[in-house]
Specification:
Layout (H helix, E strand, L loop, with lengths): L2 E14 L5 E14 L3 E14 L6 E2 L25 E2 L2 E8 L26 H11 L4 H20 L6 H9 L5 E3 L6 E3 L5 H6 L2 H5 L6 H8 L3 H10 L7 H23 L6 H27 L7 H21 L1
Antiparallel strand pairs: 1-2, 1-6, 2-3, 3-4, 5-6, 7-8
């Protein structure tokens, strides 16, 4: 073979249901090559790889020859996988196939995203193909998005538009103090100031990994004070800490998962067709919320969608009615 070019056509990621952090990936490539005396030829090549993923350290471990392979599930004809599919001890969490027009239904989980797992870039066999599917934003691109959001917020302030009440509450609840008060003694404990070199070394990606935490916990994780963290956020164009919006979306997603579980178990009250429609609608709503949560991670200054706010209000009303009925 004189020369050949490989193009990614399929990617399926499976997580182990018995070993935490263990991942299998199945890669499908369309290969175009030129063979002496024959000319251009095309064929498909499939590769299965094994990884162990964690924020402390990720590595490629290969697939032992004496263990069942995920690719064996698709041995009849062209391999085909779908999200949620179980193959032995493995469950598919990402499915992409350009030939079969299959796309991921939601953003990748944190362990398969460079903002949630920076060690992912140390695995080029996995990261490069994930990047082709999800088109991850670079740190410089994220900074530009945050700066754009910050400028829009400033323009709205100067134009006299009122600040969103929930955002204002987020901002007011986070004080600038770098000290903590002991609830038992009432004494204030001062923390040692972080080293300037350490502060300067904190990147936007590291800050983004803490968006799911309250700002005080995030500052402790990053080993800096709250005021220093807020200053770093302003440098990157992040006007407000997005923890509460992400927490609100997580709560709605968890509520939907509970409702989905109830619908799946309830075969008496609902006919099967109505039950299937309800499950489909709830699953679609969950995917929308997951996509919105990932969008806020990418652009933390953005507000929740009007539809999400309405849905959140409906959930609160339903919870209150259930509480009053149980009293």
């Amino acid at each position: 073979m004189d020369a050949c070019v490989s193009i990614l056509t399929a990617l399926a990621i499976f997580e182990s249901r018995v070993e935490h952090g263990a991942v299998r990936s199945v890669h499908g490539y369309k290969v175009v090559g030129r063979k002496a005396g024959v000319g251009w030829v095309r064929w498909e090549r499939w590769v299965e790889r094994g990884f162990v993923l964690s924020t402390a350290g990720s590595r490629e471990v290969g697939v032992p020859h004496d263990t069942p392979r995920v690719l064996q599930a698709g041995c009849l004809g062209r391999p085909a996988f779908r999200e949620g599919q179980a193959v032995g001890d493995w469950r598919c969490i990402v499915a992409f196939d350009s030939v079969a027009a299959v796309k991921p239904s939601s953003p990748p989980p944190p362990m398969l995203c460079p903002t949630g797992n920076p060690q992912l870039k140390c695995l080029p066999n996995l990261y490069n193909d994930l990047e082709k599917v999800f088109q991850f934003q670079s740190e410089e691109k994220l900074r530009q998005l945050f700066q754009s959001d910050f400028e829009e917020q400033q323009q709205s302030i100067h134009s006299g538009e009122p600040m969103n009440i929930s955002d204002e509450a987020d901002y007011a609840s986070d004080t600038d103090s770098d000290s903590d008060e002991d609830p038992q003694s009432g004494t204030v404990q001062k923390h040692q100031r972080a080293n300037k070199t350490h502060i300067a070394s904190i990147t936007l990606v590291e800050i983004a990994q803490c968006f799911h935490l309250p700002i005080r916990e995030a500052s402790k994780t990053l080993k800096i004070g709250v005021s220093v963290l807020k200053k770093k956020c302003r440098e990157y164009g992040i006007p407000r800490w997005p923890h509460r919006k992400i927490k609100s979306l997580d709560s709605l997603i968890h509520d939907l998962e509970d409702v989905l579980g109830d619908q799946t178990r309830d075969d008496v009250q609902l006919e099967k067709e109505k039950q299937a429609l309800a499950i489909r609608a709830l699953t679609k709503r969950k995917r929308m919320l997951e996509r919105e949560k990932e969008a806020i991670r990418q652009k933390p200054a953005s507000d929740l969608m009007t539809e999400t706010k309405q849905f959140r209000e409906d959930v609160f009303k339903r919870r209150n009615r259930a509480k009053r009925a149980s009293d």
